[in-house]
Design a protein that fits this description.
Layout: H1 2-56, H2 59-69, H3 75-99, H4 121-136, H5 141-162, H6 170-194, H7 204-238, H8 241-254, H9 258-277, H10 281-307, H11 310-315, H12 325-351, H13 353-380, H14 388-415, H15 424-440, H16 445-468, H17 481-485
Helix pairs in contact: 1-3, 1-4, 1-5, 1-7, 1-8, 1-9, 2-3, 2-4, 2-9, 3-4, 3-7, 4-6, 4-9, 5-6, 7-8, 7-13, 7-14, 8-12, 9-10, 9-12, 10-12, 10-15, 10-16, 12-13, 12-14, 13-14, 15-16
Length: about 475
């Protein structure tokens, strides 16, 4: 629990830094490039990021188990095998998209250099493996530096500078710069922790066995990521680039709370695998419930602070983006209800891989059917085009809620413990925060943003601290926890 608290606390501050860096990129993308260019960029990025996630082949979480099981083998050799596997899969996807680039650009490309996006698959995948290796040594700072500082600030600065050099492909080139920079920031600490793999040679059979073993993990990771992007992909097939651009911006704002969950990913994997190694299933249940509550408590506060003054938040990006306010509110709710599913999955991928994968596949299939059904209904009944974005968001929220219930029940039965992250203290805190939020929406927009968001967060945080948090919950905020336990 001490390791979870330290890791979560480190990455939480990383989340705040990432939030501060992501806002300038959205502002630059909305104000300089506009919603249409942002929409084409987003449509291409969906396929690139999917290929990148699959190329990791589940090793973001699987590497912890491989390192914990291979006690007698040089750890640098295990990491080298993982990097080799991702290298091979990355090259395969890069080659396919170079040969068949059309699916990346359903509404056309922004500029002649947009195809360079395919060269981010390899550094992205290798970065994930390197950061997973650092996390096994409880170095969460590496993830914070790479993903929360270097990557978002690089894309923001590059997007602004490149607009004056290559405005047609500025967004795409800025993304390439950010991924390469994040890769450099990830490999420096990884080499420091493990050194170079001296005496290691690639072995095709060993790498193939690793690939087969990690397939369920890769499927789960791709599907979890896909549930956050499938709505955008389907929307791009039915809506114009302008609507896609607005929805992409909404996603970028709404998924900021989801980064809180990933704040615990690097540390939760090693802690769970350690508990599994000694057969302590009750400890796993306790860790899942504890982390689940931390995540949902923080996500709920951020959701309130962003959703209530939603029009002012989206208006920062430009007047064309205000139409995404309804979708923003729905997506923020979706992230809160998804917390239990994604935290439960952190344990299920180790103790019930195939069952977890089956539920994940069913979830994304249900989401796809629901989203397409909503899109077709809007067309058939000649409803307003402005309903497409909220409909896509609603399909995601419904499917994530179903997944949360199913996965938490499944994990509870396997562990023989109750897995639940909901407490009435969250509701008690949310009501006064919502009232404060309603009050600030009656004021000018700049007051909503400058005063309203901090006021909502402060009201919610104070009440959660005294009403919702128990003594065990407060360890997340104790910097001297490790010394106390020693």
């Amino acid at each position: 629990m001490a390791a979870l608290a330290r890791g979560g606390r480190t990455n939480f501050f990383g989340f705040l830094i990432r939030l501060a860096a992501r806002i300038p990129f959205l502002f630059i993308g909305g104000r300089l490039y506009g919603d249409e260019m942002l929409g084409r960029f987003a449509a291409a990025l969906v396929l690139i990021e999917l290929a990148s996630q699959v190329a990791v082949l589940g090793q973001k979480r699987g590497l912890a188990q491989q390192l914990s099981e291979n006690d007698t083998r040089d750890p640098s050799h295990t990491v080298a095998d993982a990097l080799t596997l991702s290298l091979v899969t990355s090259l395969v996807f890069t080659g396919l998209l170079l040969i068949f680039p059309q699916p990346m650009f359903p509404s056309g490309a922004n500029g002649d250099l947009s195809w360079l996006l395919v060269f981010t698959i390899l550094p992205f995948a290798l970065t994930e493996v390197a950061l997973a290796a650092c996390a096994y040594r409880f170095d969460i700072g590496a993830t914070v530096r790479s993903r929360a500082i270097v990557e978002p600030w690089a894309i923001s600065i590059a997007a602004g500078a490149l607009f004056f050099v290559v405005p047609d492909s500025g967004l795409e080139l800025a993304y390439v710069v950010s991924i390469v920079a994040a890769s450099v920031a990830a490999f420096m600490p990884a080499i420091r922790h493990y050194g170079l793999p001296r005496g290691w040679l690639p072995h095709p059979a060993r790498v193939f066995r690793l690939a087969v073993r990690n397939l369920p993990l890769a499927g789960a990771d791709a599907i979890e990521w896909g549930t956050r992007k499938l709505d955008l992909f389907i929307l791009a097939q039915f809506a114009n680039p302008s609507q896609v651009g607005v929805y992409y911006a909404v996603q970028q704002v709404a998924t900021l709370p989801q980064k809180l969950k990933t704040s615990f990913d690097p540390i939760l994997g090693p802690v769970i695998t350690a508990a599994l190694k000694v057969g302590d299933r009750s400890a796993i249940a306790k860790q899942i419930c504890q982390v689940g509550f931390w995540i949902v408590a923080m996500q709920a506060g951020i959701a309130l602070a962003l959703a209530i003054p939603g029009e002012a938040v989206m208006g920062l990006l430009g007047p064309d983006f205000v139409s995404g306010t309804g979708a923003l509110s729905i997506l923020l709710v979706a992230e809160v209800v998804a917390a239990l599913a994604v935290v439960s999955e952190s344990a299920l991928i180790y103790i019930a891989r195939m069952r977890n994968l089956i539920v994940s596949i069913a979830t994304i299939a249900f989401q796809a059917v629901l989203t397409i059904g909503f899109m077709v209904a809007i067309t058939e009944y000649d409803l307003s085009e402005s309903l497409r974005a909220p409909a896509a968001a609603l399909a995601l929220a419904i499917s994530l809620a179903a997944a949360s219930i199913i996965k938490s029940v499944m994990l509870g039965r396997i562990l023989g413990e109750t897995v639940n992250n909901f407490r009435w203290g969250l509701v008690i805190a949310a009501i006064p925060a919502a009232l404060v939020g309603w009050g600030v929406t009656q004021l000018p927009e700049w007051v909503e943003l400058v005063v309203g968001i901090p006021a909502i967060l402060a009201t919610y945080a104070v009440i959660v601290w005294f009403v919702g948090f128990r003594e065990d919950d407060r360890v997340l905020f104790r910097r001297n926890l490790g010394q106390e336990q020693e």
